[in-house]
Design brief:
five-stranded mixed beta sheet, 66% helix, globular
């Protein structure tokens, strides 16, 4: 058994872990990341400054790709806390913690308090969920509402009285409505695939069920439909674009954004983003199927079956769609956290099958032994990917901290399971904090246009056009001082890929071109920008667009002349 009062010890670790993991980025100097974080922040900022809480806009253009709930949360935060990174990121961190809490709630209701605490900790320290929580993106808000909707639908299926069914259909409707305001139909699909598959396998599909689901649909429409109706009235054609083009055609055809990924796209994301706890998923699988008949596995009232259907069926659905993106997979990770937490709770209670027990002990041992290399590899990979130069002591610290992962396996296995798991969790939290404090800020500097905005803020007025090479421009708009933002016209600041320079650089006199130095060193050498006058703006070189345009024309003429000879 876990020993005396193990839940108090592990619960304290959970609380201590959540505080730094979900707050340290708020006190670090990490600028907003492009492309998504800066864009979403600028949209919420415009929502506040224009007092338009219906139509999300970016530099005056209606933004049709995302529903409003996350923008609303950011806009409220910006109103209360000011136009800064803390206000932008706080909603995502709170939604991330809400996802952790609802994951623990589901595990607690299904498998007891011990599994609930462990599941919360697992969800809080899984790579992809915690990474997405640090950035201001909508998908993190979908997780808690999808969790609550799945639990409400499961409870509706298992309810025995009319009053309970009314309560759970109401709760289901509210949760579904909130998922629609967060990510459109994706939340509905997640809930339908998970609970619909469960109802089919357990043979609980009855006519009365559709009546209760109809009640839930009415409530969901009351919650979510008013905004969609107002959006269509103010922006005719929105409903067709969002539901037909983005959703239906995005699933059926490769014509939409992110529509060219291979069918196996989500497999490495699931395996890598689910670390470290996804390594115990085989333990949960072995324990689930070993020694049980097909009839017992498919019996009603089995939340473990629901979790497996949730994980497998929703992942397969996403894989079948043409349009794929990393964050779409986020709603499956609570299922992984709960399944693996249940396995650990059963191990602590001595209830695992022998084969599952041996597999868990082996996985814990070898994952701890191999972990010292992970942090140094992380430092090296990020340094290469983002053209960064970390000092030697960062690599040394990464090695030393990595070796702390051996502490949990001292004396393993033993009866003090809580101690081993707490030590493992502690070393994991330390590793995450190392990455956030030492690795993340330099990466953020390479993915943000804050430097460029600070350069533009020194000017009395904006140039007639600012072209930013090979990047989206959300963060530069967010960081502009208020007077310049008020001057900003649609497309006055715009991205410009190299392939379009010949046309776009034929801009009005005084137009600027901002090019990241990293791109000049790595991929733009052939343009021969050396010798042109520029101003340094942090990581950017700011050229007169006319100078670069003349250089490109001259190079093109030379190439044409060489070919004719």
């Amino acid at each position: 058994m876990m020993g005396a009062n193990p839940m108090a010890r592990f619960g304290a670790l959970l609380l201590l872990a959540l505080v730094p993991l979900y707050s340290v980025i708020l006190i670090l100097d990490v600028p907003l990341f492009d492309p998504d974080e800066g864009l979403h922040a600028a949209i919420a900022q415009e929502m506040v400054t224009n007092s338009d809480w219906v139509t999300p806009r970016f530099v005056g253009h209606a933004f049709w790709d995302k529903p409003p709930l996350y923008f609303w949360a950011q806009a409220v935060s910006l109103t209360l806390l000011g136009m800064n990174e803390l206000a932008v990121r706080l909603p995502g961190l709170l939604f991330g913690m809400f996802g952790v809490a609802t994951t623990g709630l589901l595990a607690w209701r299904w498998f007891g308090a011990q599994a609930g605490v462990v599941a919360s900790f697992f969800q809080a320290t899984t790579i992809l969920p915690i990474a997405i929580s640090q950035a201001a993106v909508h998908d993190v808000a979908l997780v808690p509402f999808a969790n609550l909707a799945i639990f409400s639908c499961w409870s509706l299926l298992e309810s025995s009285t009319r009053r309970q069914r009314w309560q759970w259909s109401l709760a289901l409707g509210v949760a579904i409505g909130l998922t629609c305001l967060t990510k459109g139909l994706l939340g509905i699909v997640c809930v339908a695939v998970a609970t619909g598959g469960y109802a089919l396998v357990t043979r609980q599909v009855r006519l009365s069920l559709f009546a209760w689901l109809g009640c839930a649909a009415i409530v969901a429409a009351a919650v979510g439909a008013p905004w969609y109706w107002m959006m269509e009235v103010r922006n005719p054609g929105y409903a067709y674009y969002y539901f037909v083009e983005r959703h239906l055609l995005g699933f059926l055809t490769p014509t939409q954004e992110h529509g060219d990924a291979p069918w196996w796209y989500y497999l490495p994301i699931l395996l890598g983003g689910g670390l470290p706890w996804i390594g115990y998923l085989p333990v949960a699988a072995v324990d689930f199927v070993r020694g049980r008949s097909l009839r017992s596995l498919s019996a009603a009232g089995n939340p473990t079956l629901l979790l497996w259907i949730w994980l497998v069926a929703f992942t397969l659905f996403l894989s079948a769609a043409h349009s794929k993106l990393v964050t779409y997979l986020l709603p499956v990770f609570p299922a992984i956290s709960i399944l693996t937490a249940q396995a650990w709770a059963r191990y602590a209670a001595g209830e695992l099958t022998d084969s599952a027990k041996r597999l868990l002990e082996t996985t814990f041992r070898w994952s701890s032994i191999g972990s010292p290399l992970l942090l140094p590899i992380c430092v090296a990979v990020t340094a290469n990917r983002f053209d960064l130069h970390y000092s030697a002591w960062v690599y040394v610290a990464a090695f030393l901290l990595g070796f702390s992962s051996w502490l949990p396996i001292i004396g393993w296995p033993s009866q003090r399971i809580g101690r081993h798991l707490a030590l493992g969790g502690g070393t994991l939290v330390s590793s995450f904090l190392f990455v956030m404090v030492l690795i993340l800020p330099p990466i953020g500097a390479t993915l943000s246009a804050r430097d460029l905005a600070e350069h533009l803020n020194q000017l009395p007025k904006l140039p007639p056009r600012v072209l930013v090479a090979e990047t989206r421009i959300g963060s530069v708009v967010f960081y502009l001082r208020p007077e310049l933002r008020r001057q900003l016209a649609a497309d006055q600041i715009r991205p410009a890929s190299v392939s379009t320079w010949h046309d776009k650089l034929a801009a009005p006199p005084g137009a600027l071109l901002a090019v990241p130095e990293q791109r000049i060193r790595k991929s733009l050498r052939g343009l021969h920008l050396d010798g042109l006058t520029y101003q340094q703006a942090g990581r950017y070189r700011v050229y007169q667009a006319s100078d670069v345009h003349e250089r490109i024309i001259a190079m093109t003429s030379d190439d044409d002349h060489g070919k004719t000879r």
